[in-house]
Design a protein that fits this description.
- There is one protein chain.
- By secondary structure, the protein is an alpha+beta fold.
- The protein is 15% helix and 36% strand.
- It is built from three helices and ten strands.
- A hairpin with an 8-residue loop joins β3 and β4.
Length: 176
């Protein structure tokens, strides 16, 4: 979408520089409608309400925590939450974004991607994809890896791909 009249929407990198078209960044909202902060929560206010890097006179921008990108038409596309990011091989990755790419493949009915420890050293993470084939489709790990490599940077291609009959669900129907 696009910002409302009187509001500004910036998609910025970690040092508050605008990112290019189709490049993920965090959404910052500026304009006269931005609040002064959270009542009684100065630490959260300082974290979320920052000086607007593109306005004058001490205006503020709201750091939304949403990962976005601008498409080729200049419209904003939601990717996921910034707090769901993990670092894999030195790069910030949103596992849900990798899952969305899998779900856009006609041969995949269900997918989930997790960041799991590489080994006992839990500080190093790798992506692991869990996939369920669409009805009548034939899935192979090699084919999925090839399709992902054509659509994602190398560091976003899961290190492991597990083929399942179904994804495990809780009694409430949520992914377990």
């Amino acid at each position: 979408g696009a910002p409302l009249p009187g509001a500004s929407a910036y998609v910025l990198d970690d040092v508050l520089n605008p990112v290019g078209t189709q490049v993920a960044g965090e959404l910052y909202i500026g304009g006269d409608s931005v609040a002064l902060g959270y009542i009684g929560q100065p630490a959260l206010t300082a974290e979320r309400f920052v000086p607007d890097p593109f306005a004058e006179n001490g205006a503020r921008a709201y750091r939304s925590g949403d990962r976005m990108r601008r498409n080729h038409q200049g419209l904003l596309e939601f990717i996921g939450r910034a707090d769901d990011q993990v670092k894999v091989r030195g790069y910030r990755v949103e596992p849900a974004e990798v899952a969305r790419v899998l779900l856009n493949l006609p041969s995949v009915a269900q997918a989930s991607v997790l960041a799991l420890p590489v080994d006992e050293d839990e500080s190093r993470l790798q992506l692991v994809a869990y996939c369920v084939a669409a009805a009548g489709a034939s899935l192979t790990v090699d084919n999925l890896r090839e399709q992902l490599a054509a659509r994602l940077p190398d560091y976003m291609v899961p290190a492991q791909i597990m083929l399942l009959v179904s994804l495990p669900l809780t009694a409430n129907g949520k992914l377990d």
